[in-house]
Amino acid sequence: MKITTEQGKGGRLNIFADGEFIFSIESVVWYDYHIFDGDEVDEDTLDEIKSESVRRRCLNSALNILTGRAHSRRELSDKLRRKYDADACEYALNKAEDMGFIDDYDFAISYAKELNENKFFSPCRIKNELFAKGVDRNIITQVLDEIEIDIIGNIKKVIERKYLDCADDEKSMRRMIAGLQRLGYSYSDIKEAIGSER
Known about the structure:
Blueprint (H helix, E strand, L loop, with lengths): L2 E5 L4 E6 L2 E7 H6 L10 H26 L4 H8 L5 H13 L5 H14 L5 H10 L4 H10 L4 H12 L7 H13 L4 H11 L1
């Protein structure tokens, strides 16, 4: 097939084979293949170029997502798979990992500390949140062993911030206990924290 090109929008090239439009591609990807107007190119080569273009777009999307905040590998994969095929996603994830932008251990430590220090979640609730983000169980266990979580102290902080007026009313007390249990705290830990407040 004889190739011709035409400048497209946003730095892209429109590629024609035997005068018929076949796809649009980033010019930087196209020029990497050293193909010029009038060159003869087979279909397999064009398919490979298209695949490379998709892989690079997927990597760019991954890096854009990661500029917002850190993600676990699986969390990022789930987002990319909404738009890209499995091959492009795997390429982008591996590249981002090689570049140091994905590290599930670093992500888990940072996220666990945030949940502990800002939301006062229990170890059980932190474990569930990390698991939901796709972090490996072994990493979760390691992270929970490494960070310090003051269970009774956290419960007291939640009470001070959200339930200060609940201590004297039985219905409000039940609401407070239910709220603390949703944060992953056991009834016995809650009772101990309430008892030490009195």
